[in-house]
Request: fold
Amino acid sequence: MKIIAGLGNPGQKYTFSRHNAGFLFMDYISQKHHIPIDRLKFKALMGQGMIGGEKVVLLKPQTFMNLSGEAVAAALDFYKLTTDDLIIVYDDITIPTGRMRIRMRGSDGGHNGIKSVIYLTGSDVFDRIKLGCGAERHEDFDMVDFVLSGFSDGEKKLLFEVIENAADALCMLVRGERREAQNKYNGLDLTKKEEKSEG
Reply:
């Protein structure tokens, strides 16, 4: 069994903010694999089903981003699983919108949701899919304002195309095909496709 958690903030006003890319991904996965995420447990909305031939638990923590680890740790404990069985999907503003990264371990990179997961699980070794949500920064750049800001129409299109690719990468991770997923998707850059279509 795998636990797949997408990170975000509950509440309609945050739905299409950059910090909610993980929630948007989980909504897509829910529809694609016909797994409703509608039960409240572990301080999260959850659902259970099958992806890539494996049993999965889907989580959308409802604690707000900074306490995401509470839901993840509670689910791991309940199912007697370790972080080897965990996949986290979240926004990364250091990666341009239109790209993604797959990693198996590492620091929180300044992401408070991942910081909480690492702290409460006691491990930084878990599969993670980072969805690029970055954009060019300007003089008055404010980190908090930026992660809670929305996407332009062009960025939304890129994000949802990345989410479609990330859904395929997720299936590979669930099957244990970590290196294959990295090789296939870490070089993905949909911004170049956009440039070609405009040119």
User: Anything to note?
Assistant: The mean pLDDT is 87.
